Structures are given as structure tokens and as C-alpha cells.
Amino acid sequence: MSFIKRHLNTIIPIIGLIVIVVILQILSGGNTLTSYNLKNILNQVFPVMMCAAGLTLVYAHGGLDFSVGAVLAMTQLISAIIVRDTGITQLALPVSLVSGVLIYFITGIVTIKLNMPPFIASLCVKFLCTGIVSTVLTEEAINISSLPIHSWLLKLIVLAATVVALFIVLEYTKLGQYNKAIGENPVAAKQSGINVDGYKLAAYMIAGAFVGLAGYFVLCRQGAMTMNTGMGLELDVIVVLVLGGLALSGGYSAGVRAAVIGALIITLLENGLNIVGVNSYYVGLIKGFVFLAIVMTTYKKPEGRLLPR
Amino acid sequence: MKKSKILVVSVLLCMVLFLITACGGGQNSGGSGSAPQGSGTATGGGDYDYSIGLCLKFDSNASGLRIIDAAQTTCDALNCKLTVKAGTTADQSLQNVEELLAAGVDGIVMNASAGITNRLLQLCEEAGVFLVICYTDVTMDEAYPDYKDNPFFVGQFSNDYYQTAYDVTQEMIDAGAEKLAVFCMPPGIAQAFDLRAEAAIQCIKDNGKTLAGEARGNNLAESAESVLTQWPDVDAIFSGVQADLYLMTPIANAGRSGQVLVNTYDAVADNMAELFDNGEIFSAIEGESAATQMATIMLYNAMKGNMFVEADGSRPEIFYDAFIIKTGEEWTAFQDYAYKYSEAATQEMVNACTDLETFKTYAADFSLQNLINAK
User: Fold this and answer.
1) Which residues in A lie closer than 8 A to residue B115 (C-beta atoms)?
2) A33: nearest Cα among B171, B102, B284
3) B14 touches chain A (CB under 8 A)
4) What angle do CA B31, A272, B24 make, to 5 degrees?
5) How far is it, in rounded angstroms, from Cα A133 to Cα B99?
6) Mean pLDDT within B71-77
């Protein structure tokens, strides 16, 4: 019993996920867990899980990011223009990765060196990226249909590999542990001799690589760069992490499981409700109730924060 | 057992289940992705002959509801099941199409292609599902040559957005407008908005009139408020969006109600007839709901195995004349019954339109007056 109590906010999201899948599978007459729809779910979960996983390191040290959607759009824009102008499709992935890392490097530098609250710095970067995208993209879409459509298996492998890699980084390396320590108590971390600024910056750059990778796969999937790409992704990522049980204040509760479980819940729920044929007016309502139920059960009221792991 | 182990076991279990199910050859009711046979067999499930998906931008405003109602009327007439999905972004369009395919639709009417028609069609081809385009002129899509001969591409039934906007602006100028402003979404959001704004500006230039300026911001409410502040002496405002929603209050606040010629697209205001009668709205451009019905008929024929094709084998690129409504009386007639073909009119059209030429004849007659007459 004490085991269940101790791991309540890990267990509840998983139980929630299983319950959602079973109910939707029954209601849809078996259409939710068909091979075809599982591939759809993978396509839909990929960008949000990838971005949420990448940003876990940033959230671990107490950062808060509102720029991920705009950065994703920016990486796509740069990749799309370079591929269109050079005709070399192989450039899309490295360009997207590098631009993601560079943009988050800037966010990190602004946050750390100017001692700016992370959400303010990320909002500034968001507006900058959105402004650049809307200034440069004066047509409905930059079509890059020469980009490959990746198989579901490749996406699954990439997603699994990056999640596992991040799990190792978070749990077994100095980078992960120190970022969590900074999230717990930055002053204590600094006084312990941890290079706080350096580890924070590294977290931002790793997040940038993840967002760049997600941007590349979304670009390939769409075959075009469009104006509204990434719109609302920042809120999706926050919802995903909270649903997965991550404390937004950072610290030792941060783990890649939040990104995995949260992304699966949000995607499965939306996809399943659509497959079942629930009127779109009610989809938001049902999502709201389910999210509320999960968050309420993992929320520790007296301290006003999520349960510690 | 540590919690990390629980996680590892859970994730591994999910991965294994995923792999087993994904590789297990689960059924996609759409088809095999081979060339369309059009056998006419019912695959929609239940008592329906076919299952049709409709993707549009918004499903909760008045304009969206008119489109859904019109599509439902057509589906009722054709004994088809209708599933509606809404979304404005490319990602949402992809997701909507994927989910419609997973739900087993036989054909999709796409009113929100978000500039990625090529990818949407690739998905449809893989699933063996037909796609017809409405509300986008695909002939202007730079990727159009890549998919124009796709066996699952049914064609397009679209308005000539540029020409319509040009005509509307010309009418304002003919009505005495000397100084005009343009109010629209920013460039790049959607083809229709860009063409409308471009046409209006060109028309103003062609007539030697004054272009006061362009208000094209993402936040339409803010842009609308700035129009009368920036250019208080404009005679007319060409709006590429829903002016009835955004511009009426700023104009009233400036004390110029009824003095500025304003058009609107896809109107949503409850008091449109009153706005016409008071001279607050000069014209309203409509027709998408009935056009969606025409596109659905094209799709229905394709699903039945009677794909409309031009003599050279290419798909029809049909343009319709938008309804330009100019009086409260016309608006009332439009809103009450003429925004869609009735079930009987749809059935009559389907029975008559067994070939492209006949369908084109009906398309050429597409007008508000004909809809009123049909009633």
C-alpha cells in the first residue's frame, strides 16, 4: 500500500492511459488500435513527445519555455528555404538540427547572461521567430515535396532511441543530475561547485536539437512549410509534461516518463475521440475533464505542488 | 521494484504491443492504394452507401455551420454518412485526413487543404480514398503538376478568388469610392486571403483611386480598430475576411456607420439583413456551402466509379461564381434556404449529372438566383 502511495503520480497517469485506450477501443468498435491508426497515432505523437522530451532538461532546472512552436516553425522555414534553393534534400535534417540548437542557444544565453526569467526570454524568442516566419513566408506554403515520407518504423526507432538516450542523460549523467539539482535549489547547486550557467545552457542546446529533429520530421510529413506550423505546440508541451506528472518547478521529479506518458495520453485521447466520432464540440470538454481528473489525483494540495517522486 | 523499472517495463510493453498490432495487418477500410476500381460497392458501413469526410476550417461559426448543414443535406440525398473535421493548420489538416481514413471513409471533401494538397492526396492514395478540393484553387499550387494525375484526385470546385475580389472592389469604386483601405489576414495564411487582397489592390490601382493602406494583422480585432484610426477619411474598406464581425463596431465608434462601403466574406453576424438595410454592409460574398455540395457530387460520382475527366484525361478544374449579396432581402433568402441545394434539388442534379459536360452546365448555372428559383 505504501508502495502505491509513494508512486501515485507515476501510477495514476499510466492507469489513466490504459483506461482511455480500453474505453476508446471498445467505443470505436476496434478502430482505435488498428495498425493503420497506430501509425496515425505515432505520426501525431511524434512532434509533441519529441519536443516535450527535449524540454524536460530545461524544465528540470526550473526553466519554462513558450517558444517551442515558433522555434519548430523557424527550423522548418530555414530547412525549407535551403532545400528549395539548393535542391539538396539531404541538407534538411542537419540544417534543422543546427538551427534548433542555435536558436535555443540564444534563448539560453539571454536567460542566463541577462538573468531574465526563462518564460520572458522564451516569449521574446517566440515573437522574434514568429515575426521572421511571417515576414519571410509571404505565400501559403513552400512546397518541398521532394523530401522523403519516413516510414512509421523509422519514426518509432528514432523516437525510442531519443527517449532512451534522454532517459540515460537524465538519470545517469552529470548533465541530468546537475540540472535536477539546480531545479531543486540553484543556490545550493552553485555553492556545491556546479557550473550552473554551463549546465543550463547545455540543457537549452539539447532541447534545441530535439526541436530541430521534430521540425525535420514534421516538414517531411507535411511536404511543405506553412505559416501556422507549430501553432499551440508550447501549450501542448506544458500540458503533456503536467499530465505526465512533472513538476513545473523542476528538480528531482523531472523525468522523461512525463513526456512519454503525457504525450500518449493527450494524443490517444484526441485521436480516439475523433475515431469514435465524438462531435468536435465535445472533444475539448471531454479532454478537459480527463486532464482535470488526472491532474487532481496527482496534485498534493497542502504544499500546492505536484507530488515529489 | 523501483519506479524507473515500472516505467521501463511499461514502455517496453507498449512498444511490443505497438509492434505486434502495427505489423499485424489490421484493416484499413479505405482500400489498398491500388488504382481506383469504382465498383460501386458500399463500404461505408451501416445502412449507408458511402462514408464521406468533410474537412473545413471552422465548424462552430455561422459560416461553418452552413457548410456542414449543406454537406449533410447532400449526404442525406445520396444516402451517405458524413463525418466532419475542422482545422486551420497544415498539421491539423493532416491529422484530420489521417483520422478520417482510419475511420474508414470512402471519400473526402477538402475545404481546408492548408497548402499541402500533395501530401493529403498521397495519404488518400495509400488508403485508396478519393479526394475532391473545394475552397482552394489548386491550379495555383506549385506542386499541382505532381498530383494532378493522381488516380484518387477527383478535381476541384473552387471560386476564382482573385476575380471575385476584383469585381467586388470594382463595384465599390463604381459606387463612388475614391479612397479605399484593404483589411485582410497577413500574407501567407491562406491562398484565398492573399488573392483577395492582391486583387483589391490591383483594382484600386487600375482605376487610379487612392489606396489608403493595408490593415493585415494576425489579430483581426486589433487591425480593425486601427483602420478607422489610421485612415479616418476612407470611403470604402475592402475586407478579405468577416467584416461583419470585425469592422462594424470600429466604424460605429468612429461615427461613420453607413458612410463607409464595406464588403464581407462568409458572414456570421445575426443581423446581416439589418446591416444591409442600414447601408453598413455593401456586399457579402458567399457560396461555399452550396459549392461544397457540388464538390460532394463530383466525389460521389468518383466513388461510384464514374470519375469526371476532361477529354485529355485530366481532372476537372471547375470555378464557380460566388454569390455577391447586396440587399437585406437577398440575404434573408440566402440565409433561410438558398445557401444550399435542397435534398430534392441535389437528387435531381445527381440523376442528371452522369457526365462531366452536364455537370459543367449545372456548375455554370451556379448562382444565388438559381438556388432561390430551385426553392
Assistant:
1) 140-141, 143, 224, 226
2) B102
3) yes
4) 50
5) 29
6) 94
The residue that leads in pLDDT, A42 or B217, is A42
**What pTM was estimated for this model as a whole?**
0.80
pLDDT category at B317 given cuts 50, 70, 90 is very high
Query: Is the distance from CB of B286 to CB of B322 less than 8 angstroms?
Result: yes
Nearest CA distance, B81 vs chain A (angstrom): 11
Burial B30-69 (b: 16+ CB within 10 A, else e): bbebeebeeeeebbbeeebbbbbbbbbbbbeebbbebbbe
The residues in B 167-196 lying below 8 A from A, measured between CB atoms, are: 186-191, 194
Alpha-carbon distance B11 to A171, whole Å? Answer: 16
Give me the count of residues in chain A.
309
CB atoms within 10 A of CB A154: 11
- Residue among A33, A160, A275 minimizing CB distance to B103: A275
- 3-state SS of chain A is CHHHHHCHHHHHHHHHHHHHHHHHHHHCCCCCCCHHHHHHHHHHHHHHHHHHHHHHHHHHCCCCCCCHHHHHHHHHHHHHHHHHHHCCHHHHHHHHHHHHHHHHHHHHHHHHHCCCCHHHHHHHHHHHHHHHHHHHCCCCEEECCCCCCCCHHHHHHHHHHHHHHHHHHHHHCHHHHHHHHHHHCHHHHHHCCCCHHHHHHHHHHHHHHHHHHHHHHHHHHHCEEECCCCCCHHHHHHHHHHHCCCCCCCCCCCCHHHHHHHHHHHHHHHHHHHHHCCCHHHHHHHHHHHHHHHHHHHEECCCCEECCC
Determine the pLDDT at residue A23.
86
Residue B247 confidence (pLDDT) above 60: yes
Q: Is the pLDDT of residue B256 over 70?
A: yes
What is the pLDDT, as a whole number, of residue B59?
Answer: 85
Q: Is the interface score ipTM higher than 0.85?
A: no
Q: Is the pLDDT of residue B181 over 80?
A: yes
The residue of chain B with its CA nearest to that of A138 is B188
Best CA proximity match to A69, nearest among A234, A180, A265, A257: A234
Residue A196 CB-half CA count within 13 A: 20
**Complete DSSP assignment for B145-160:** HHHTT-TTEEEEEEE-
- What mean pLDDT do residues B309-333 have? 91
Q: For the residues B343-354, what does the mean pLDDT come to?
A: 88
- Report the alpha-carbon angle B279-B282-B287, nearest 5: 135
CA distance A256 to A241: 9
469585381: which residue's cell? B167
In one letter, which amino acid is B88?
T
Cell output for B181: 483601405
Residue A149 to residue B98, Cβ atoms within 8 A = no
Q: Are the C-beta atoms of A246 and A254 separated by less than 8 Å?
A: yes
Q: Report residue A209 as a C-alpha cell.
A: 536539437
Tally of CB atoms within 10 A around B123: 23
Residue ranges of chain A whose pLDDT lies below 50: 302, 304, 307-309
Give the torsion sign (CA, B318, B73, B150, B58).
positive
> Does position B2 have pLDDT exceeding 70, yes or no?
no
- The predicted structure's pLDDT at residue A36: 83
**A166: which residues sit within 8 A by CB, 6+ positions away?**
A53, A54, A56, A57, A206, A210, A256
The mean pLDDT of B126-133, rounded to a whole number, is 95
